[in-house]
């Protein structure tokens, strides 16, 4: 083997809809920042470009379909050939983005890429709910447009089943990482050769990265006017005009996806923003629902102080750890908020801009996920309704900025 330390093959491994392409493209962007020349060779894209007829139907992926197997192998070989040429020239890293789930296919890849080291990255995600949501996002692809939604989902799941029937997890390969791609967690790592850029790649794999996250609190509600907590109140006229001001502010930025809670006030805030965008979907996540204040839902802070003084004083004493009777506390929200963030990042792929419209307590928790704060300080983070947080969190840049979206009324 030519041990040129500046050249590397990376081969992705994993069932469809496990985040392989997102990870590949984010990794590429990261490496390019350091002038590490990286290119992705994606079998699915090449298949769609080269095949005249639609190859989205599940039988094409049946391992017993000899013609399908032959065509898919042909695509794989073309990409391997192209990747080799790329590395023989100026390229540093060639990423083979395909399922590569069978031993047979991986043996082929290993045999043909022996001019440089080869690193396999396996993406694993067995979270049924997230898988379901990512399949729903997959079937937007043009190749599923001739099918209704249910038929498209069935077809995609059948394709996954076929891949599953030949799936062999990474185990005996010389260099590999098995990654929980939802939680950015390395499950297993085996490295036997000198893998160039490995430290950088590994750090990237375990980093939560988001290029631009706009974290917004819903506009003013009727409950806000009365200082009431929880509930499912609508926006006031002022709240609606805040939502439109946000919509105008973000009109020139492409926001492909807005995550909201299930509460009307966040959806009503997201609606105008979506309206002024060209392609934008709203995804509601229950993980982003406001703190459940249990027996205090719908009460004002004054009423709580008056009618339930022990709740008022205990919460004051240790706001982070205090759990409302029959409800939640910041401390118990942690797990679901983390899960919501993972879901949102996973579902937004490699989008340049994403937006979350949340609530006061929720946004505090989201902020503190990206910017470390002492737990006891989290319940006091400032979350206004006339400003939003712009968050950038990548391997080499962390930025937090509180920005105003409406001109100041100095009247
Ligand atoms: O008042 C709005 C609100 O979002 C309530 O629904 C929620 O209980 C509260 O803010 C959270 O803020 P704090 O933890 O400071 O009471």
In short:
This protein has 14 helices and twelve strands. By secondary structure, it is of the alpha/beta class. The chain starts with 7 loop residues before the first strand and ends in a 7-residue tail after the last strand.
Features:
6-stranded mixed β-sheet; 411 residues; 14 helices; elongated; binds 6-O-phosphono-beta-D-fructofuranose; alpha/beta
Question: Topology, pairings included?
Answer:
Layout: E1 8-13, H1 20-33, E2 38-42, H2 43-50, H3 66-88, E3 93-97, H4 103-112, E4 118-124, H5 128-138, H6 149-164, E5 175-180, E6 185-191, H7 198-205, E7 210-217, H8 222-225, H9 237-250, E8 257-260, H10 264-275, E9 281-284, H11 301-307, H12 309-317, H13 330-347, E10 354-358, H14 360-370, E11 387-394, E12 397-404
Parallel strand pairs: 1-3, 1-4, 2-3, 4-5, 7-10, 8-9, 8-10
Antiparallel strand pairs: 5-6, 7-11, 11-12
This protein binds 6-O-phosphono-beta-D-fructofuranose.
6-O-phosphono-beta-D-fructofuranose (F6P) is lined by residues 229-230, 290-291, 293, 359-361, 379.
């Amino acid at each position: 083997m030519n041990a040129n330390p500046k050249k590397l093959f990376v081969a992705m491994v994993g069932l469809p809809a496990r985040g392989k392409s997102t990870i590949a493209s984010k990794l590429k962007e990261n490496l390019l920042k350091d002038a590490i020349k990286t290119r992705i060779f994606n079998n699915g894209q090449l298949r769609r470009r080269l095949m005249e007829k639609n190859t989205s139907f599940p039988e094409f992926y049946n391992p017993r379909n000899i013609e399908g197997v032959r065509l898919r192998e042909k695509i794989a070989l073309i990409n391997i050939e192209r990747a080799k040429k790329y590395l023989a020239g100026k390229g540093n890293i060639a990423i083979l983005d395909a399922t590569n789930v069978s031993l047979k296919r991986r043996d082929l890849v290993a045999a043909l890429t022996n001019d440089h080291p080869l690193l396999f990255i396996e993406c694993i995600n067995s979270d049924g709910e997230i898988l379901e949501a990512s399949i729903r996002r997959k079937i937007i692809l043009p190749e599923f447009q001739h099918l209704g939604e249910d038929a498209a989902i069935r077809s995609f799941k059948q394709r996954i089943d076929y891949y599953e029937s030949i799936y062999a997890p990474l185990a005996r390969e010389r260099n590999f990482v098995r990654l929980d791609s939802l939680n950015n967690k390395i499950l297993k790592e085996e490295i036997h050769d000198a893998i160039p850029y490995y430290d950088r790649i590994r750090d990237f794999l375990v980093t939560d990265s988001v290029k631009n996250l706009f974290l917004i609190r819903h506009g003013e509600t009727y409950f806000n006017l009365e200082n009431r907590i929880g509930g499912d109140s609508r926006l006031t006229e002022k709240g609606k005009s805040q939502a439109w001001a946000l919509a105008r502010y973000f009109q020139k930025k492409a926001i492909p996806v807005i995550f909201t809670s299930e509460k009307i006030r966040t959806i009503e805030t997201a609606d105008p923003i979506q309206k002024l965008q060209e392609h934008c979907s709203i995804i509601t996540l229950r993980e982003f629902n406001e703190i459940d204040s249990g027996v205090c839902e719908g009460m004002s802070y004054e009423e709580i102080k008056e009618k339930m003084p022990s709740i008022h004083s205990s919460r004051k004493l240790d706001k982070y750890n205090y759990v409302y009777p029959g409800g939640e506390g910041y401390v118990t929200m942690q797990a679901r908020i983390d899960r919501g963030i993972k879901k949102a990042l996973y579902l937004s792929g490699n989008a340049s801009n994403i937006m979350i419209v949340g609530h006061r307590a929720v946004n505090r928790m989201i902020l503190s996920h990206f910017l470390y704060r002492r737990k006891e300080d989290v319940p006091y983070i400032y979350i206004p309704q006339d400003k939003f947080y712009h968050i950038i969190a990548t391997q080499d840049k962390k930025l937090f900025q509180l920005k105003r979206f409406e001109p100041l009324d100095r009247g």
